[in-house]
Design a protein that fits this description.
The complex is a heterodimer. Chain A is mostly beta strands. Helix content of chain A is about 15%, strand content about 50%. The relative contact order of chain B is 0.09. Classes of the chains: A mainly beta, B alpha+beta.
Chain lengths: ~230, ~375
């Protein structure tokens, strides 16, 4: 079920979504996501849905600015691409909400509101940011990952490394916990600055989307190769 | 509150194999014998009160899940009035379950708010403690860095220190100064430093020894000193700042906790970069009172070890203090950065009194030639 006619292609590694808007329809995306559009669409950039939600988005690592594409002058098409290589998924919100990891939000239709959800200590200790993105309402949400996306239907309990979580449904209760030995702190530095060895414990019934790669280990892998002067 | 004031229809959701995707939204009503959920496309679901199993959960922790015994059907609702409406209609059949659920939740909330109340100040205190601990450890870590780091920082600072100044290159001035330094340098506490001197044409009564051993002497100091031993006294004090690595410690203090933390893992790159960015010798030649006292003591030790009379330093202080007020602006430099004269003089004298007997030898330098050359 979906409100917007859309097609996601080039999955899973460099996925892109093209949305065909009927006359009068709108799609809202993060800025700089637009790859192409038909000239009859109107593009407007601006703050959306109030100061609180706007700031919430900012704290959740998303842009405060939202780009809105409207088919005011007849049907048109826009293609939207996320910033990082990976997959794009569509989810239809049926008077419900979806929680997204930092940076996972790509676009949504009318009827959906995007805000930040304060995680408190949960977020602080997981090392994945203090605020999650919350998409709420009735309509379409498009989100993206780094790597491909796998879906899990949780029926009881599932542990997922915090770095792999992309999105989850509001019916799932979650808790951050340390999983001993999952990834030991190798140096003093990542003891202080790393957020490793943390897992999200999901319980209840609902769906979780995970990505098949994590960004942080990639950065750690690249780090030694960066062009920097060595101190002797 | 009467029965009629209570809301009876709520926005909810349903988990069931009979709906597409296993989940859909619905409106739920509390009826006499059970819950009725109605989906947008007309599907109806019924849960009898006496088979209901309740559970609190969801991302918010406030979503109430109502299930049948084989868990094939779940009706869930997050609205505030729903538990009250459920209790009102289901009565005794559910009141025990509901009370259990909500007292657990309330207890959880109470524990959480208590934790928050106690934990927040503790956490803040801990963070502040950690901040200072890291700074402290960073300063300690300075002592384990290779001397090349001192030299790098000294090179950067020297550029800003000597900017726009005229250097004196007369060998009659340079040579005696270098001889004084050469007499002291074998007794430096930190091996590997190369003490190079340069003399700046400035009336300030001052001298600076940068990290790594670069010494800058101001003309005013040579003019104010009456003997070569007094110059040796001041230079020993300044060299002690370098051998005790006070400059690096000051830099760590002023650059903050990230750099200190980097030092702890043995990465001095950040420190050098920050100094380079500041481009200022002021960041590393502002010493604390403790560091000045430490340098006095270390200077006296060096002088004594090099068989130069350490009391020359004390007598130089005394003479500076007795300078007439008009001349104060010229000596103010060294005084302002070196407070508490009387205390320091007394401390130096006290330290000298404890030293082992030593046959002090005069400095064999052409002091008169230096003085003469300064006047020319």
């Amino acid at each position: 079920m979906s409100m917007l006619e859309h097609q996601i292609s080039q999955q899973p590694d460099y996925a892109i979504v093209s949305v065909r808007l009927q006359a009068g329809q709108k799609v809202h995306s993060e800025p700089s996501a637009m790859a192409s559009m038909t000239p009859n669409l109107t593009l407007k950039a601006g703050l959306k849905s109030g100061l609180g939600k706007t700031l919430g988005r900012a704290f959740a690592g998303e842009s405060m600015i939202t780009s809105t594409y409207s088919a005011d002058r007849g049907p048109g098409e826009v293609t939207l691409a996320p910033a990082i290589p990976g997959d794009v998924r569509h989810h239809f919100l049926d008077n419900s909400s979806l929680y997204l990891q930092r940076g996972a939000f790509l676009a949504h239709s009318d009827g959906v509101e995007i805000s930040g959800k304060w995680q408190g200590a949960k977020g602080f200790f997981s090392g994945e940011g203090l605020v999650l993105v919350k998409a709420q309402g009735t309509g379409d949400v498009f989100f993206n990952s780094y790597g491909a996306i796998l879906e899990f239907d949780v029926r009881d309990t599932l542990l997922i490394d915090t770095g792999f979580v992309v999105a989850f449904e509001d019916t799932l209760q979650y808790r951050i916990q340390v999983l001993k030995g999952s990834r030991p702190a190798k140096t003093l530095k990542n003891f202080f600055f790393g957020g490793e060895g943390f897992v999200c414990r999901f319980s209840g019934q609902g769906r979780v989307w995970i990505q098949t790669r994590q960004v942080t280990p990639l950065l750690q892998w690249i780090f030694p190769f960066r062009p920097a002067k060595k101190s002797d | 509150m009467s029965v009629w004031d209570i809301q009876t229809e709520f926005a909810a959701g349903v988990f069931s194999d009979q709906v597409t995707g296993g989940r859909c939204s619905a409106t739920v009503q509390c009826e006499a014998s059970g819950l009725v959920a109605q989906t947008a496309n007309g599907q109806r679901f019924f849960l009898h009160y006496d088979q209901l199993q309740l559970e609190l959960g969801g991302a918010s922790g406030r979503m109430l899940f109502c299930r049948n015994s084989d868990r094939s059907l779940t009706i869930f609702c997050e609205e505030r009035g729903f538990p009250a409406a459920l209790e009102l209609h289901a009565g005794v059949m559910l009141s025990e379950q509901l009370a259990g659920l909500f007292s657990t939740a309330r207890r959880g909330r109470r524990v959480r708010s208590l934790l928050l109340l106690v934990g927040t100040p503790l956490l803040l205190l801990g963070l502040v403690g950690l901040y200072f601990a890291i700074l402290q450890m960073g300063r300690a870590a300075v002592m384990t860095l290779p001397v090349s780091v001192d030299q790098k920082i000294g090179d950067v600072a020297a550029v800003s220190l000597q900017q726009g100044s005229v250097q004196l290159t007369d060998p009659r001035i340079l040579k005696p100064c270098q001889q004084i330094v050469d007499r002291l340098s074998p007794y430096a506490a930190l091996p590997g430093l190369e003490f190079q001197i340069s003399i700046v044409d400035s009336p300030d009564v001052n001298a600076v020894c940068l990290p790594g051993g670069r010494i800058v002497i101001f003309r005013g100091l040579l003019e104010a000193a009456q003997t070569a031993e007094e110059v040796a006294g001041v230079l020993s004090h300044e060299m002690a700042h370098a051998t005790l690595r006070h400059g690096l410690q000051s830099a760590v203090r002023s650059t903050g906790v990230i750099v200190a933390a980097e030092l702890l893992i043995g990465d001095a790159g950040g420190l050098v970069a920050v100094i380079a960015e500041l481009g200022q010798h002021a960041a590393i030649t502002k010493y604390s009172r403790e560091q000045e006292t430490e340098s006095d003591a270390e200077g006296v030790r060096m002088l004594h070890a090099a068989a130069v009379d350490p009391l020359a330093l004390a007598s130089f202080f005394e003479r500076l203090k007795e300078q007439p007020q008009q001349q104060l602006p010229r000596v103010i430099n060294w005084l302002s950065t070196h407070p508490q004269h009387d205390v320091r003089i007394a401390a130096i004298r006290a330290q000298v009194a404890t030293l082992a007997a030593q046959q002090y030898r005069g400095l064999e330098v052409d002091w008169d030639g230096l003085k003469q050359s300064l006047q020319e």
